[in-house]
Amino acid sequence: MKVAENKMVALRYSIKNSRGAVITEIMNDTPFRYLCGSGGILPALEENIYGMHAGDQRSFVLLKEEQPGLFEDLHIDVVIDEVLDPTPFEMPQIISKADCSGGDCCC
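That's the Peptidylprolyl isomerase sequence above. Prediction below.
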């Protein structure tokens, strides 16, 4: 299964600045899990991992000129540990006004 919208992704990563200083790193820790497409990670990071499979590794650079809000280039190493279908608990619940039945309605 590949990284795509509405897939649960477990990944490990290392982010360094252009001088090689580690900004954050979880390569030896428990993988970070998120629902792809939910806004749980930087959009540019997510774009770079789309299509990857469990076991894949990739290195890339996010250039400050191309990413609003970045003060310096970021060098990222990422490893995909798992790509799974989410459980019903992991999927966001979308409630429409048609679902409202009064009383404790959230609408």
